[in-house]
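This week, look over our next protein:
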Amino acid sequence: MNDQPEISFDNTQYAFAYKSDKELKRAKFLFSSMGKPWLIKLGLAITPLAIRWRIPFTRSIIRNTIFRQFVGGETLEQTAGVARKLGEYAVQVILDYGVEGGDDGEEGFDHAMDEFIRVISYAATQPNIPLMSIKVTGFARFGLLEKLDSSVADATGTLMARFAAALQNLTADETEEWKRVVLRMDKICMAAEKGGVGVLVDAEETWIQDPVDVLTFLMMEKYNKAKVVVYNTIQLYRHDRLAFLHDSLEAAEKKAFILGAKLVRGAYMEKERRRAAEMGYASPIQPDKASCDRDYDAGVAFCMAHLDKIALIVASHNEYSNLNATHLLREKGLAFDHPHIHFSQLYGMSDNITFNLAKAGCPVSKYLPFGPIKDVIPYLMRRAQENSSVAGQTSRELGLIEKEVKRRSLRV
């Protein structure tokens, strides 16, 4: 399609049109602070403790700085205002109820399931919220997933065959517990199908990922027949995930369902490497960034070559990866708004990518978490760590913000 507009991620007028001068200056201060490694290290150490010990003013400080930048609000109602504002600029939203893993018991897991369904019910009423995100650890005990994953690793054959063997290692109580996990997942996906909302299943740590993948496959087989309801998240910073993507398509073809694939680079790199070193096994993480980038772009190209069978979400903050995806669409003569292509970035980051893609007519979303401050602290800590550890991320964000502040100051 030769009439598609050229896309530039340097256009800060489009990138920050939704931010007031005050909001832009607040973002500038935050990213300036995040550019100081010592300050991030200190914050990562004391913030969780300050929340737990209820130190005065801690919540207020967090709410008006990092929380405001990266989170939609403490409640779904507060987050709705952010979603509406993004919608004014043709940016869609992926809602994420900010519950993290924890052994909260069956009552807590049922509550998390109910909250996910409540999010789906709300999203179904909104024109710019086509997707929502879930974490299996929100409604499944970590220890159960870990035991299943360990048993899968000891078996042979395909993933589904190994998982079937792993189920035999559960006690009677654990078997019933797993059945409840499957039932919760099914209720969530059933509500999503009914409401016309897509469900993105977040990736987890490698030592619990296999049962998450199996659960997601089961739901895709059931709900992705005529349209895509369920998406798996594939972390390409793992050196085995490109092959896993190929195997996933093969499984989808055999079971006659559409593969939903959200491609990310990854979120647990330091934790994964540290655990591998401590426990003496080979790291599952790519040896270097170049290898990760290579596999990510190969994954996008593979999905693009099979868009009739794969619904792809390019979830990346890498400018090249996003531009490359649009170039592949051009080469194939496909529209930017092809029904099996979507782009996504985290709320509070890479606005230059999101809003310029939206301006060009690409379907693009902000991943928008919400929840009480104490519940989203783990998410916020990852965002702070990510911006400080990814080479050039903070400086790139800060440079674009400063460019827009200067542009606005020169307006007549």
Summary: Residues 315 and 344 are 5 Å apart (CA to CA).
